[in-house]
Amino acid sequence: MGRIVTSVTVGNIIEAGREIRCDALVDTGAYCLTLPAAWKTRLGLLPMSRVVEAELADHRIVPGEVCGPVRIQIDGFDAIAGEVLFLDMEAEDGRYEPLIGYITLEQARLVVDMVGHRLVRLPHVDLKRQRVA
User: Which has the closest alpha carbon to 46: 55, 54, 56, 35?
Assistant: First the structure.
Protein backbone atom coordinates (compact mmCIF):
# COMPACT_ATOMS: atom_id res chain seq x y z
CA MET A 1 0.00 0.00 0.00
CA GLY A 2 1.29 3.45 -0.88
CA ARG A 3 1.63 6.44 1.36
CA ILE A 4 -0.49 9.50 0.79
CA VAL A 5 1.15 12.69 1.97
CA THR A 6 -0.60 15.99 1.36
CA SER A 7 -0.33 19.62 2.39
CA VAL A 8 -2.38 20.98 5.26
CA THR A 9 -2.79 24.46 6.70
CA VAL A 10 -3.95 24.81 10.30
CA GLY A 11 -4.91 28.25 11.59
CA ASN A 12 -6.11 29.90 14.76
CA ILE A 13 -9.71 31.00 14.15
CA ILE A 14 -9.44 33.93 16.59
CA GLU A 15 -5.89 35.18 15.91
CA ALA A 16 -5.58 35.77 12.16
CA GLY A 17 -2.17 34.99 10.75
CA ARG A 18 -1.30 32.38 13.37
CA GLU A 19 -1.03 29.26 11.24
CA ILE A 20 1.03 26.20 10.46
CA ARG A 21 1.61 24.88 6.95
CA CYS A 22 3.07 21.41 6.59
CA ASP A 23 2.89 18.09 4.79
CA ALA A 24 0.98 15.38 6.64
CA LEU A 25 0.50 11.65 6.23
CA VAL A 26 -3.09 10.58 5.59
CA ASP A 27 -3.67 7.94 8.29
CA THR A 28 -7.17 6.43 8.35
CA GLY A 29 -6.25 4.66 11.59
CA ALA A 30 -5.60 7.96 13.35
CA TYR A 31 -8.39 9.80 15.16
CA CYS A 32 -7.91 13.37 13.98
CA LEU A 33 -5.36 15.87 12.75
CA THR A 34 -2.28 15.21 14.88
CA LEU A 35 0.63 17.61 15.17
CA PRO A 36 3.78 17.69 17.30
CA ALA A 37 3.34 19.41 20.67
CA ALA A 38 6.45 21.46 19.85
CA TRP A 39 4.40 23.37 17.25
CA LYS A 40 1.48 24.32 19.53
CA THR A 41 2.78 27.78 20.44
CA ARG A 42 2.89 28.71 16.74
CA LEU A 43 -0.93 28.76 16.74
CA GLY A 44 -1.16 31.14 19.70
CA LEU A 45 -3.87 30.86 22.33
CA LEU A 46 -6.61 28.38 21.40
CA PRO A 47 -10.04 28.71 23.03
CA MET A 48 -10.54 25.09 24.04
CA SER A 49 -8.20 22.46 25.37
CA ARG A 50 -8.55 19.07 27.01
CA VAL A 51 -6.10 16.30 27.87
CA VAL A 52 -6.75 12.85 26.39
CA GLU A 53 -5.01 9.50 26.34
CA ALA A 54 -3.95 8.38 22.87
CA GLU A 55 -3.02 4.85 21.82
CA LEU A 56 -0.15 4.75 19.36
CA ALA A 57 0.42 2.18 16.61
CA ASP A 58 2.80 0.31 18.94
CA HIS A 59 -0.01 0.17 21.57
CA ARG A 60 1.64 2.61 23.97
CA ILE A 61 -0.77 4.98 25.73
CA VAL A 62 0.48 8.56 25.81
CA PRO A 63 -1.09 11.86 26.91
CA GLY A 64 -2.12 14.35 24.27
CA GLU A 65 -3.85 17.70 24.20
CA VAL A 66 -6.89 18.28 21.97
CA CYS A 67 -7.31 21.96 21.07
CA GLY A 68 -9.68 23.93 18.94
CA PRO A 69 -11.52 25.05 17.15
CA VAL A 70 -8.93 25.58 14.45
CA ARG A 71 -9.27 26.23 10.74
CA ILE A 72 -8.07 23.23 8.72
CA GLN A 73 -7.52 23.26 4.98
CA ILE A 74 -6.27 20.10 3.32
CA ASP A 75 -4.54 20.38 -0.08
CA GLY A 76 -6.67 23.26 -1.39
CA PHE A 77 -10.02 21.62 -0.58
CA ASP A 78 -12.67 23.58 1.37
CA ALA A 79 -11.54 24.65 4.83
CA ILE A 80 -13.31 23.28 7.91
CA ALA A 81 -13.37 24.09 11.62
CA GLY A 82 -12.10 21.20 13.70
CA GLU A 83 -9.80 20.03 16.44
CA VAL A 84 -6.11 19.23 16.50
CA LEU A 85 -4.38 16.70 18.75
CA PHE A 86 -0.93 17.73 19.95
CA LEU A 87 1.39 14.86 20.90
CA ASP A 88 5.00 14.72 22.02
CA MET A 89 6.54 13.38 18.80
CA GLU A 90 10.08 12.38 18.01
CA ALA A 91 11.54 13.97 14.89
CA GLU A 92 13.06 11.49 12.44
CA ASP A 93 15.97 12.94 10.48
CA GLY A 94 15.01 16.33 11.93
CA ARG A 95 11.43 16.13 10.62
CA TYR A 96 8.11 15.42 12.31
CA GLU A 97 5.36 13.38 10.66
CA PRO A 98 1.97 15.05 11.25
CA LEU A 99 -1.10 12.89 10.63
CA ILE A 100 -4.50 13.56 9.07
CA GLY A 101 -6.98 11.19 10.73
CA TYR A 102 -10.39 9.84 9.78
CA ILE A 103 -12.52 12.37 11.71
CA THR A 104 -10.81 15.27 9.95
CA LEU A 105 -11.22 13.53 6.57
CA GLU A 106 -14.94 12.94 7.23
CA GLN A 107 -15.51 16.54 8.30
CA ALA A 108 -13.79 17.78 5.13
CA ARG A 109 -15.83 15.30 3.03
CA LEU A 110 -12.67 13.67 1.71
CA VAL A 111 -12.09 10.01 0.93
CA VAL A 112 -8.93 8.11 0.08
CA ASP A 113 -8.56 6.96 -3.53
CA MET A 114 -6.32 3.92 -2.97
CA VAL A 115 -5.74 3.34 -6.68
CA GLY A 116 -4.82 6.93 -7.50
CA HIS A 117 -3.03 7.50 -4.15
CA ARG A 118 -4.86 10.77 -3.57
CA LEU A 119 -7.71 12.41 -1.69
CA VAL A 120 -11.04 12.91 -3.44
CA ARG A 121 -13.92 15.15 -2.32
CA LEU A 122 -17.30 13.48 -1.84
CA PRO A 123 -19.94 15.14 -4.03
CA HIS A 124 -22.57 15.15 -1.25
CA VAL A 125 -23.08 14.55 2.46
CA ASP A 126 -24.07 10.97 3.31
CA LEU A 127 -27.49 11.01 5.04
CA LYS A 128 -28.84 7.64 3.88
CA ARG A 129 -30.40 6.78 7.22
CA GLN A 130 -32.17 10.11 7.72
CA ARG A 131 -35.81 10.75 6.93
CA VAL A 132 -36.27 14.00 5.06
CA ALA A 133 -39.57 15.85 5.30
Answer: 35
